[in-house]
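Reviewer comment 2.1 asked that we show a complete input and output for one of the modelled complexes. We chose the S-adenosylmethionine case, as it is the one discussed in the main text.
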Amino acid sequence: MDWYRETLYTEVSQSFKVERIVHREKTDLQDLVIFENKIMGRILALDGVIQTTEGDEFFYHEMMGHVPVMAHGTARRVLIVGGGDGGLLEEVLKHKTVERVVMVEIDRYVIELSKKYLPSIAKQAFDDKRAEIAIADGAKYVAETAERFDVIMVDSTDPHGPGEVLFTAEFYGNCKRCMNPGGIMVTQNGVPFFQPDELSTTYKRLRPIYADVGFYVVPVPTYYGGFMALSWASLDAKHRQTPPAEIERRFKAAALDTKYYNSAIHQACFALPNYMLGRMT
Ligand code: SAM
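Response of the prediction step:
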């Protein structure tokens, strides 16, 4: 294979020159490919969709991991749904104040193959004593668990295949069930320029369930099409209004090693362009 062409959309696509196929496997759930590209490094794709790359994983994992934890201020228990490459887990565990992270990933092979072929993304996260990895459907997990979390991060594939259940009102309602008072949930919500319906659908489903609902943005090079949207759903509107000076104080106290996230980006990421605001009705 000379070029890997992503098949997320029917009318546009991006391609990556394949230096080397590192591993290809049809798991019992997804078609998994890990290949090397000269600029992006190693790339993980599932069912024809780029999931994460060594070169730009920090944009997305830092923004999904640090914005809710910094806004919450006293998050101790975090749930990650999906996230099989371990990049988000690694970012969340940078917070020494976080005591426990449960990561519920449906496809064990994504974890095993990411550990083996993408070690630079998760680094030592899977060995951290604070982390518990569960192989299960995240939708089932949140419907049944007796555990309660301060922050829930849904680092899922797009709403096709196994990821589809993670975009339903039922799932969002069960995530609320698993939250401690003042809880926050953030989810992967696609690239609104190419996936506008995903933004409006998510907004309509979250609005009746959570006190504070919105989106924040991050420009991830390989999630092309301008901004990627992460949805925000909280039981307490005060989190999104945490004063900039307090976010700055928390960021300094956390002493995070980041390449994208900082306290100014934290403020800016909630400013949305009109083409997105127009979808939040
Ligand atoms: N950052 C990527 C993105 O924005 O598309 C997501 C990366 S991560 C690899 C997505 C993970 O979600 C995959 O490992 C996939 O197996 C997992 N996943 C999909 N559906 C799931 C479900 N119902 N429960 C738990 N994990 C799921």
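The pocket of S-adenosylmethionine is lined by residues 46, 51-52, 60, 81-85, 104-107, 110, 137-139, 155-157, 162-163, 165-166, 188 (CB under 6 Å). We note this here for comparison with the apo prediction described in Section 3.2.
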